[in-house]
Specification:
Layout lengths: L1 H12 L10 E3 L5 E6 L3 E4 L4 E5 L6 H6 L9 E5 L4 H17 L3 E9 L2 E9 L3
Parallel strand pairs: 5-7
Antiparallel strand pairs: 1-2, 2-6, 3-4, 4-5, 6-7
């Protein structure tokens, strides 16, 4: 019983963010980065920049390894002005993922405003 109680306490002390997946990057032609996990937050500002926040920050060396010069590691971005139709679909997919507590797969190529630039999104099956 003593061990069971200790195990329960240990499990409750675990940081659940440690279980979240980090974004990864792959060099190649063309290089790309990928995130599989929950959409932590969705943000759109007056400059029409949409941000999708990761569960776990992108390690700076990971983006560097793919040749991307980014300075912000907690989210990926998309400029609504670049493709308003895609932006609507991106936003609705991210909202659906949040509402249903499902994972998304986001692929990023390039950078914008210091963030990795979102290129595509998938909503994972329930």
């Amino acid at each position: 019983m003593k061990y069971l109680f200790s195990s329960i306490i240990l499990l409750t002390m675990l940081n659940l963010n440690a279980l979240a997946a980090e974004p990864t990057c792959h060099s190649g032609n063309p290089p790309y980065c990928k995130y599989i996990g929950k959409v932590n937050r969705i943000y759109v500002n007056a400059d029409n920049l949409m941000l999708l926040y990761f569960d776990t920050d992108l390690p700076s060396e990971v983006a560097d390894s793919a040749g991307y010069n980014v300075s912000k590691y907690s989210a990926a971005a998309f400029s609504v002005d670049q493709n308003p139709e895609f932006a609507k679909m991106l936003y609705s997919t991210a909202l659906a993922a949040q509402a249903s507590n499902r994972d998304v797969t986001i692929q990023m190529r390039g950078s914008t405003w210091g963030y990795l630039k979102i290129d595509r999104i998938w909503l994972d099956a329930p």
